[in-house]
Amino acid sequence: MLILDTRTLLVVTAIISIGSTIALFSLWRTQPRHNGAGFWASGMTLITFASFLLSGRGSIPDFISIIIANTVMIIGFSQILRGICIFIKRPTLLFFDFILPAIVALTFYYFTYFENDLTIRITLFSIALVMICSAIVITLIHNNYTAWRHAGTPVAIIFGFFALAYAIRATVALLTPYDNTFMSTSTSTTLVFIAGILTIGGSAITLTLFSQAALKAELQLFSMAVKQSASSIIITDTTGAIEYVNRAFIEKSGYTKDELIGKNPRILKSGEINTEIYKGLWETLTAGDTWRGELHNRKKNGELYWEIASITPVKQQNGYISNYIAIKEDITALKNAKQRIFEMANHDALTGLPTRRLSMDRLEKYIATAKRNKTKVAVMFVDLDGFKNVNDTLGHDAGDFVLKETAARLCSTVREVDTVARIGGDEFWIFLTDIADSKAISVIADKIIKTITLAYDVEDTQINIGASIGIAIYPDHGDNSVELIKLADKAMYKVKKQGKNNYTFAKQ
To answer: Which of 130, 203, 372, 463 is deepest in the core (most CB within 10 A)?
Structure first.
């Protein structure tokens, strides 16, 4: 068996450690996030430093070349163990981080300066390395990330081999105590250092492969998640050209993958969205921020649909934006449901006319416009005469028919810009906007009464009713919606008392 010089082996170990340190630092620098690789690099750096200190035995003080060097070596391997724990998301082991290095430092100090015993030092150092390497093996074996668990096997083998080598060394030291110096050559020392060289070099390679396997598994998981996501996902370049679409988007849009790749998402534009929204979208993205909002798009078959979208710039490590990714959810059903709820809340279920709340909102807007343009707004309070008799004699179905027919007749007497509202029972509001004078209002009021007094044909029966109308004008009678409604209501009751089926204006 070839026996090599111990100092030469230490120098070779240091050189191999330098290469491994460089490799692990490069690996750490390429990681997208902190995942323990930095501890691998720092641990290998400490091992390199310790190897150089050990190779200086005899040339530098024993305190540095024995106590500090061996303690740093133990800390280096502990750092690698810590990095592996972090990498596979297991709790770090404080015993190996702090307690074991302290024990090594104290025992080496005692067995160097108080009782110089090389055998015990070698045995203790070997046991410490066996414990750390065994912990690495056990940690990797209990790795729960099955997608890349097999990639940890080579790492476990490397450190298991190293643990075995130092276990043999500890056994040999106990059976055949050393009676010479640490730097003396022997077969066991040569074998142990060769094992160390192989471990240090092999650990850098296997840890790198381990990291790449984990990254590959993570990318595969993300890829599967994107492909199978129920949300529509699009990835574009910085010009907006589509580079990727998932299956959900293809199914939603109706386009094929070939029809979409290379195209701009503007092919989905419905023309229903203000161009300022798209301008703001691109300003947000080019500034490096995420845009969130709703888009009204068009499918290949022409069908319109609503989406809520989150579009995010994809930034590289240097901050450069390389792509944009959009994640979109179809909210057409939600939009339709909201619209139905709005209709139910703001429109009369029987006639389809605006209710009190919606009509009051419109009146406020009419008054604001009239104030700016110095025009008039007329508020008509219409109450049907004789309607109660219809319900009492012919039933509610006939009454409902009369109300729906009345709503249609009232709408036919005014312009589209005006508002006809049912506020309950047989009472209606009519708001006339941009009115020149009271004479024009009187013409419409006469027309309404004539229209309402025309007979209603309900099956084989003709029904005749009338209408009492009270009118208030902005700004002649009041300057706010509530006051105008009250005045029109009061004027309507005046008509009722004076004989019905007529109209009158509120008192100025």
So the answer is: 203
